[in-house]
Amino acid sequence: MLIDTHAHLYVDDYNCDLSKVVQQAIDNNVSKVLLPNIDTSTIDPLKKITKEFPDFFLPMMGLHPTSVKADYESQLDIIYNELKSSDVYIAVGEIGIDLYWDTTYVKEQTEAFEAQLSWSIEKDLPVSIHSRNSYKEIMQSIRRVGENKLRGVFHSFSGNASDLEELLLFKNFYFGINGVVTFKNSSLSTILKECPLERIVLETDCPYLTPAPFRGKRNEPQYVVYINNALSKIYNLKPVEIAQITKSNSLQIFDLNI
Prior knowledge:
Layout: E1 2-4, H1 18-27, E2 30-35, H2 43-52, E3 57-59, H3 72-85, E4 92-96, H4 106-123, E5 127-130, H5 135-145, E6 152-154, H6 161-167, E7 173-177, H7 188-191, E8 200-202, H8 224-235, H9 239-253
Parallel strand pairs: 1-2, 2-3, 4-5, 5-6, 6-7, 7-8
Helix pairs in contact: 3-4, 4-5, 8-9
């Protein structure tokens, strides 16, 4: 059975056919899908589909870095109160720093990220980290807050060999691998040969980063099988072995008992 550790199925893209998307995932041996939050506007949709499919979805709670603006503290207050109010959340996420789209609020992003890292220590929860064009800054924040007290996933890893080497030093962190590994113009398949399979989890990042051969279409959890198959070729193991190892990794890092 496969676990998709990162998907946003509560967004409008799935309003018309969510039940079908869930069933197609189940039919393709996807047993669980983990749902990171984006900002205050997505809390209710996230909670709604989690209640609708309680045996399939596992929610996280956090503020995405691209949603961090000048008023980020008011958003953090709402999200923190939501995180405190329920034991249903399995992680703090999606959090991090994004320097790809806009660097206007890099100070605010860093402050929001480190605040949420502290929540994870307080709640004893893993984190799902967004780190686009920001591995250096992410590592600095983790060290400031306390790398030995933190654990989680570097979501959508797409760094170079040097980035991988440095991030592997964070022993309590895993690497989320998604459809990028199937792209012809990506060097990720080569870089991952230096990454222990025991440090990898599968993800789709739905509705984004749809794997080949479906690039250009809406992504779905059922396509996680193509990511699993790509890793099978990289590590020269049978797909069922990749599925077993990455599932075990997911259960460990997110402290799941399923």
